[in-house]
């Protein structure tokens, strides 16, 4: 699968690239094509990096992709998604974007009027584009540490069953991450709001790279 990382030159984009490039063709996107090319080249030079990766501008990356991961800060999501809307025609869109603020002491969930970043992206894209919310609670630093074994669950929200299954499969391409379906895209605000909570818990209790694992006291029911 061809995966475009819109705004993919930052920490989370680098993390997704390193974790997925062995199984998929990765396209680093940026407002500036030169910056995207430099980022892709730098990733390939990292120890242990292996796979197919290249860089171009965001619009070109989206146009050739099967799936798009939005790696942009929440304050830029609206403008970036709007500017790229004409480049979308069939792609699956994955939003790990978390709208939050920090006052120096406390992280707060700060959703847009649509209710969540995933719903905001959906409202700006062509109606046929399927949006799935996922990967909010996977720390970017942990993603980038390619030799580190990740632990935890990836909570997924989406309205289209096929799109959700695609994100499940993509999640399982990252060793030891477990995909769990939460519900429709309307539930994405619940999942997005977990990130500032985790950051507060981590900060107050000196925990590094906090994540989410859903536990049960009973074994799973047979299929």
From TrEMBL:
Q: Does the keyword Oxidoreductase apply?
A: yes
Q: Which GO terms describe its cellular component?
A: plasma membrane
Keyword entries, A-Z: Oxidoreductase
Asked if the Swiss-Prot or TrEMBL record annotates the protein with the keyword Kinase, the reply is no
Q: Which InterPro entries match?
A: NAD(P)-bd_dom_sf, NpdG, P5C_Rdtase_cat_N, STEAP_metalloreductase
Q: Report domain Pyrroline-5-carboxylate reductase catalytic N-terminal positions.
A: 2-98
The GO molecular function terms of this record are: coenzyme F420 binding; cupric reductase (NADH) activity; ferric-chelate reductase (NADPH) activity; NADP binding; oxidoreductase activity, acting on NAD(P)H
Annotated SUPFAM superfamilies: NAD(P)-binding Rossmann-fold domains
One GO biological process term is:
NADPH regeneration
Q: NCBIfam families, alphabetically?
A: npdG
PANTHER family from the xrefs? DUDULIN-RELATED, F420-DEPENDENT NADP REDUCTASE
Name of this protein: Nadph-dependent f420 reductase
Question: What is the species listed in this Swiss-Prot or TrEMBL entry?
Answer: hydrocarbon metagenome
């Amino acid at each position: 699968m061809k995966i475009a990382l819109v705004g993919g030159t930052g920490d989370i984009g680098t993390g997704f690239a390193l974790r997925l490039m062995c199984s998929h063709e990765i396209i680093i996107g940026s407002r500036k094509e030169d910056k995207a090319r430099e980022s892709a080249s730098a990733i390939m030079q990292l120890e242990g990096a292996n796979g197919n990766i290249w860089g171009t501008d965001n619009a070109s990356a989206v146009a050739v992709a099967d799936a798009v991961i939005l790696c942009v800060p929440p304050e830029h999501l609206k403008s970036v998604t709007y500017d790229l809307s004409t480049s979308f025609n069939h792609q699956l869109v994955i939003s790990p974007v978390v709208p939050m603020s920090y006052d120096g002491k406390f992280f707060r969930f700060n959703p847009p009027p649509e209710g969540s970043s995933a719903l905001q992206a959906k409202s700006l894209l062509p109606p046929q584009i399927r949006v799935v919310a996922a990967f909010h609670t996977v720390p970017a630093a942990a993603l980038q540490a390619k030799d580190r074994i990740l632990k935890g669950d990836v909570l997924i929200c989406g309205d289209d069953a096929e799109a959700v299954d695609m994100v499940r499969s993509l999640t399982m391409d990252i060793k030891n991450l477990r995909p769990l379906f939460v519900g429709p895209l309307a539930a994405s605000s619940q999942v997005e709001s977990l990130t500032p909570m985790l950051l507060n818990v981590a900060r107050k209790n000196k925990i590094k790279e906090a994540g989410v694992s859903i536990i049960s006291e009973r074994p799973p029911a047979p299929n």
